[in-house]
Amino acid sequence: MIQFYNVSKVYDNGVKALSDLTLHIKKGEFVFLVGPSGAGKSTLIKLIFREELPTRGQVMFNGKNIVRMKGREVPYMRRKIGMVFQDFRLLPQKTAAENVAFALEITGASGKEIKRMVPEVLEQVGLKDKGHLLPSQMSGGEQQRVCIARAIVNNPLLIIADEPTGNLDPDTSWEIMKLFQDINRRGTTILMATHDSGIVDTMKKRVIALSNGCVVRDEESGVYRCEL
Amino acid sequence: MNFNTLKYFFREAFTSLVRNSWLSISSVGIVTVSLIILGVSLLLVVNAEKLTKSVESSVEITAFLEESVGRVDRDRIEEQIKSNPAVDTVEFVSKEQALKEMKESFGDRADILESLEETNPLPDAFRVKTKQAAAVPATAKKIEQLKGVEQVRYGQGVVEKLLNVTRWVRYASVVTVTLLTLAAGFLIATTIRMSVFARRREISIMKILGATNWFVRFPFVLEGIVLGLTGGLLAVLVVDVGYLSLINKLKISLPFIQLVNEPRIILTILGSMVGLGVLIGALGSWFSLRKFLRV
Question: Where is the chain membrane-spanning (chain B) (predicted)?
């Protein structure tokens, strides 16, 4: 579903983020993206999401060439990708339910659909009775659940999570990971950048390790193994 | 764009207006003040224009004829004056008529002129009006050279000064109105940029969730239109009420000053104020957003 062909990315300020990277991720996979800071994880995510364009090479998502995609097609491509962030990025003045509804409103969904979908998704992430709370009234773990609910409400093909457990304590992290595993079992592809070696080692999923903009390791049921 | 999205746009624009009520009120205030100044200067311009027009149209050339000029020569001179394309009307004023007019202008004291009845010293004359006031000095010079014309009067010096003043008034008002429109535009663009800046996080989240540029932009543009429209309507209210009461006051206390009060002109000015408010609001939002949409 995601293919990188000889992708290089050099930023305008001369920083080389990725060099000649080739990578394939199949539909339904659960992939951990590991590596030290500055290895190129964020750039890789930005390229899939088309926040950045590669300097060389091609990126495919869902059979479409993202690099050659027209600007006005980008929003519709992004609706097939759910994003989860370390810092949640919820709208502070909207309640949990409103934050989730917002993702539907953007696609032009009807009020009826929104009323049906939002409680369903909130229940799925275990926030059935907390839809009326503002992000500031919730714990970090609960906020991350709202963020996940928002990411899955449009039935995306792919979920990209950028260190989703970076701000959470270990117990909460595990609950969040179970949630991701549930989502993955329903067929959604998951790409997760993380520094949490405990989680990577226990989950036994595919691990892609980046270093200096290159794939240094790519193995099924891999471990974190911070080699330097 | 479907109905749900439209509903969302309006709800979003209005909640944002209420949520940022302080900013909204100051934006409306700025629009109102700018447009009031603009409206007042537009009214000044139309009134100045009317005044200069009426002063200019009263400028005329009087060509006094020599005593010896007979009927035939008189017709010839009239033909010659009329042949000048700058001339609008030519009116013959006989010496008897001139005396009568003089008496009228003296009013109650006309008895002073009684002794003149028998030996009227006033000459025959032509009163010439030009199509444009600016053509008066040149036309006067030409008439003066005609045979049989003794003297030409048109308020030499005064007319030139008056023409200078009216030209200056026109230039000054065009410059003032242009500058004020630009100033109002910049102030509103800045205010809306602040509102956009306060919500840049929200905009980036919208882009991440796959919102189209139009979807992000429209509520802001709508917000700008509402701000501009409100400010425009307030300004129109103030200017209209103020101007009408000024007209009524002047009618009583200074009846010889006639302000422009044709409804068509006033409505055009007020309408363009509202229109400009809406336009400034919409364009201000549009340009303020451009930078933030590149994600």
Answer: 21-46, 171-193, 214-245, 265-289
